[in-house]
Amino acid sequence: MGKIKIFRWRAVGPLLLVLILLGVLYWIFSDQIAETTTEEASTELLGTQVEVGSLTINERDASVRMENLEVADPFDRNRNLLEAALVTVDIEPVPLLEKKLVVSRIRLQDLTFGSARRRPAAAAPPDGFAAKTLETIRSWPLDVQASLQNLLPIDTIRSIILDPGSLATVQAATRLAGQVDSARTAFQAGVAGLALAPVLDTAASVARRLAAANPLTLGLDGTRRAVSDVKRALDSLAAARRRLEQLQAGAARGVTNLERGLGQVDAATQLDYATARGLLKVPSFSAPQVSRALFGQVSIDRLQQAAYWAELVKRYLPPGLLPRERPGPFRVRRAGTTFDFPRMKEYPKFWIERGDANFVLGSGGASEARYSVRITDLTSAPAILGRPTRVSAERTARDAGPRRVNIDAVIDHTGPNPRDSLQASVTGLRLPGFDLGPLPFRVDPGFGNSRLLVQLAGDSILARWTLQSDRVEWSRHDRASAIPPPVETLLWRVLSGVPALSISAQLTGTIRQPHIEVSSNIGPAIERRLRAVAGEEVAKAEARARAMVDSVVAIHVTPIKRRVSALKDSVDTQLQAGQSRLDQEKQRLDELLRRLSGGLIGVALPGRVEVAG
Amino acid sequence: MLTLLIKFIQSLVKSLHSEGTPGQVALGVALGACLGLTPLMTLHNLLIFAAIVLLNVSFAGGMLGWALFTPIGFLLDPISDSIGRALLDAPSLRSVWTEWYNIPVVPLTEFNNSVVLGSIILWAFLSVPIFFLARFGIARYRATIGARVSQLRIYKAVKASKVYNLYRLFRPD
User: Fold this and answer.
1) Chain A residues within 8 A of B170 when measuring between CB atoms
2) pTM tops 0.80, yes or no
């Protein structure tokens, strides 16, 4: 039995060959891989597309050189947040053995801001933290448009047109129409119940039969019968008259009720006028609301950017030394979760000891000046360093002058309660113009001052943005707006006459539930003008609302009034005609009775005969 | 897919008929299982690969173990993730991980990733039964149908190919 060999020495050669091959592959592709990895990681980290023109790793100096670095603006994909012509990164080699990136110095040369992109930036991975933060901030529940809607002129009451039945007048008229029908039916039934025609016919018949009768020829007995017939006819007439009078009284009550109903309809109309006035959208003209409506959007745009970067800082620079979780590296298999275990007196996972950048602002001439930016101790584990991250930017000493940009930021996550503050100010420089919300107006502040202050303590945020300019230029463009032309013209008249602009916006609360207040010197000016115009508009609108109610009332109430009047006339006519016929027949019978009784008026005749005198 | 299948068959044939002992082939399979069960592009797998090449174990067995356990590794990923997460999250082990995390080179192994750590632990436990099962299976194969298979044309074709010559560099002594 031979000795068992543990090592296969002849495989060393091929293994070395494989390792050499791997080395060659690294030499060929390392720059490309590092460039792609840098772009992908930065894009996910910042939530916006990061592109590197070329990347070269210099192993001998442990440095990386990047050319044409472009970072797209997460809020405007057609613009670059910044561009750097050259970026040099000096790396500490030893921490790389612990998979830690310690940058002793990073230099960004020839920075430019806000340049237009050749093509729109690609969207960041939607499931990344930055993209989610951006989505949260973009969906802030701050509806500045709503306050602008309140500037709309007084609206008429469309609901009246849509549902006339909602008017009290129409409801009262409908009820009255029912009463009119009932009253007419009851009256017709009463008229039918009078049975005047048979009574009158009988009376006329008696009168005709005895017209030529003579007591002398009739004899005592004949005369007595004739008198008795006349008396019965008179009794029937008297009974019919009583029925007629009862019907008359009932009809009078019915007419009174209908007239009361008409009064209720008139009262309901007054009520409807009041309701219609209440439905008018009377505008609100407080100065803060006007400022919010006009400058709310631009203020939010500025403050959203500050809040976005503050949130990323909070995420990537966590306080304390507890283990931290992050998604594992992308691979075909499950990525898993990667844990970091920071420890005091060790290198943090990521650390930029010092970064320098320079840029030029102004377009030649006196306004052109060089600026330098310095950042120190930017790290993923501030507690290890025990020093806050500081960022500062200022005009270089040799270019000192009245026009300047200053940035001073302190990111202190060394303790358990993170505290961040940023102060940025621009003095005497040309400020970018902006549109006034949905209005077709634009303001160009020209040379002015702007200041941004952001303070973060835990989840609370306080951000303030101010803008001041003494010589602003207002311009109108052709874009259609939702504001009616008279109001738009009014706003333009006020705005175009204001030479100076001062805006102050303040954001408080938390990133998820912020509250914004905006004030400006424009608000009170517009408020005064709008209030004057509003008085006239309110009066016009009230007249329109009254006319609207009247038009509806005319359709529904006038026919009812006509029917009530017609019924009343009909009742009067019919009752008067009946009464007249009864009186006429009674008169004829009275004369006949007087003649038959031979003038013995008041003499008791056989039976019960009463002669009306 | 077809290429993978052919390679798998090649590995299977070579390892079963290699000149190594069943123990050498089984050890190769057990080491190769690490390549399949754990995420491939990691530092520890470079060491495992070097071990398969340099140690006197069956290289074909290693390739067979890799091919055989890669799909199993994918299937076991959720379990590996859970194991690794439980270990990395355990307060009692935090000092160990923190120590390792701050030792040069060790973090390059990605031990602090839940899937990597969990799958290594899983492989460490499974490697022993894998070794014994493989050794038993290869011995049985050679005692029963191995001789007949070695007479097949296809086997001879594979054995005569240039690939086989390259393989001979790594065959066990």
Assistant:
1) 8, 11, 14
2) no
